[in-house]
């Protein structure tokens, strides 16, 4: 895997490109110019979002397949904030590019092309974990716990580098079950809106998976990611979100104030130790949660060891939620998708911990 800034990103009149070149990015490259996005041959479309499209591409020099994400930031952010947003994008891309972990999708390059920012990432095949959150399609319990352990360790590594994800959810984790490849995607993307106004509000992330402090617009650290991981594991085990509501105000109140149902309400056969792990991950106050991904991974490994083998190997179990006629509503829960909110909508939240993320 090539180093993140092997190429000089090139000069441009845009503030983002100026910031990139002035910071010495790409100093390992000996030539004075860089082809930028021209170094890649774009192929078929892989996905499309509100302000981004992802293409399969080939790196011309090596023939390697990569994924190129183009972000049209100008569509979402106020003109007066756009320069700052572009610079923040480059900083976040650089921070993500320094992450070298088997379970984190590698960022290879980034830059500016016209009005768009772009980022090149390693290309992996598989399905994101949102394919495994429906009753009847849930993964075996032991597989969920093993994945959770790996994800917690990957987050622990990123947090030690000062990088917070901010949008951990099933759609941002890729899994190829046959080979066992697991990748956390989109590190730092949610942060590009910090302190900037969008045309429709503040991009905060995915409400159902956000910690109380993140929903309240407070400073977050790695423990916020661990809360989101707890929400994701809960959904992977039950096909349910810990908190569901008919309005954003109700959802935010629940996340800030109400304990979620014990996971055994939907899966009575799950061990108490697993319920305790999830309850600790989903604590409202950051200081009461796991202090690190390493600690959470250790507890998940312990639960996995005590899991009865026959139950662990069951592909499906009798799940209460399978008989619930309202279960289909969970699959289209609007708060389980990325939304844009005005900062003034943030609900009450316990005081922020003195632990803040690294700059």
Automatic annotation (TrEMBL):
CDD domains from the UniProt entry: STKc_PknB_like
Residues given in the record as ATP binding sites: 69
Lineage summary: Bacteria, Pseudomonadati, Pseudomonadota, Betaproteobacteria, Burkholderiales
Stretches for region Disordered: 312-359
Broad class of enzyme this protein falls into: transferase
Protein name: non-specific serine/threonine protein kinase
Transmembrane helix keyword on record: no
All residue ranges annotated as the Protein kinase domain in the record: 40-304
């Amino acid at each position: 895997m090539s180093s993140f800034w092997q190429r000089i990103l090139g000069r441009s009149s845009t503030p983002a490109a100026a910031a990139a070149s002035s910071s010495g990015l790409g100093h390992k490259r000996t030539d004075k110019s860089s082809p930028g996005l021209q170094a890649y041959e774009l192929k078929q479309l892989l996905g499309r979002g509100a302000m981004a499209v992802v293409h399969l591409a080939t790196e011309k020099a090596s023939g390697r397949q990569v994924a190129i994400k183009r972000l049209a930031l100008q569509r979402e952010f106020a003109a007066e904030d756009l320069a700052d947003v572009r610079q923040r994008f480059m900083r976040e891309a650089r921070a993500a590019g320094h992450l070298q972990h088997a379970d984190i999708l590698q960022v290879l390059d980034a830059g500016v092309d016209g009005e768009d920012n772009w980022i090149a990432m390693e290309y992996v095949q598989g399905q994101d974990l949102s394919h495994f959150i429906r009753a009847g399609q849930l993964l075996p319990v032991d597989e969920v716990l093993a994945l959770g352990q790996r994800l917690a360790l990957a987050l622990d590594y990123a947090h030690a580098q000062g990088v917070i994800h901010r949008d951990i959810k099933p759609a941002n984790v890729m899994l190829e079950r046959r080979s066992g490849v697991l990748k956390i995607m989109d590190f730092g993307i949610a942060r590009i809106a910090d302190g900037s106004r969008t045309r429709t509000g503040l991009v905060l992330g995915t409400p159902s998976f956000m910690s109380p402090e993140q929903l309240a617009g407070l400073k977050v650290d790695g423990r916020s990611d661990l809360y989101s991981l707890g929400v994701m594991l809960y959904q992977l085990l039950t096909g349910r979100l810990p908190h569901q509501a008919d309005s954003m105000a109700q959802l935010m109140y629940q996340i800030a104030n109400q304990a979620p149902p014990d996971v055994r309400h939907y899966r009575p056969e799950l061990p108490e130790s697993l319920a305790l792990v999830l309850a600790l991950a989903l604590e409202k106050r950051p200081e009461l949660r796991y202090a690190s991904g390493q600690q959470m991974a250790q507890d998940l490994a312990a639960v996995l060891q005590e899991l009865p083998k026959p139950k662990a190997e069951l592909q499906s179990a009798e799940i209460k939620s399978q008989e619930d006629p309202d279960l289909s509503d969970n699959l289209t829960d609007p708060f389980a998708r990325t939304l844009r909110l005005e900062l003034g909508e943030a609900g009450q939240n316990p005081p922020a911990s003195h632990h803040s993320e690294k700059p």
